[in-house]
Design a protein that fits this description.
The protein is of the alpha/beta class. Helix content is about 45%, strand content about 15%. It is globular, with a radius of gyration of 17 Å.
Amino acid sequence: MRQPMIAGNWKMYKTIAEARQLVIELGAGLTGIQKVEKVLCPPFTALMAVRALLEGTDLGLGAQNMHWESEGAYTGEVSPTMVAELCQYVILGHSERRTYFGETDVTVNLRTRAALAHGIKPIVCIGETLTEYEAGETGSVVERQVRLGLRDLELASDFPLVIAYEPVWAIGTGRAATADGANTVIADFIRPAIARLYGDAAAQAIRVLYGGSVKANNAAEFFHKPEIDGALVGGASLQASDFIAIVQAAAG
């Protein structure tokens, strides 16, 4: 049995003061919900403030990106050693990073390997664009992203890696994939691609989340599917009541 995970990607929202307020609002509603791993991923500027508020709770903390080098002349970047001081998780390869900032399967792989080497659990995002979806290329795209993005990893026996399947055409558009459709992509393409790299045990152990216009009113239908192990939540993670409702749906 894979433990469900709900991770909130706050993207480029929330000042430090706003982040503190959101965590306070989330605290009471989330603490009592068992059987679900809960992760908050605020902007870099708010990580330290959020970390202080999460001490003593069962909520995890994640960064939204990370460079692969431990240090160096990379102005504006944040290294894995810096992230590891504050976070247990890091989101890698989000479609917005691929679209706007030149991320590729190769750089996602470098970042993923660096995260694992520094004891950080990567949440690796994959997914097809609208053009690829309409051309019937979903399977080949996600298989390629798994094959190239996850190759040559040093995986411990507990497989400390999470994949987020996020169809690009569903992110922030209000147009979610169907639960059946997402479940099929994971079952037919993503898990077999993992199995070809690391074997059936890894394919069955690694959690695969769904992301893309996940809301309180549609989350449960995704979580009822056997291959979907939770969600990477964008806009709905910025409202305490919505995020709490999504976590409750994952808890069943």
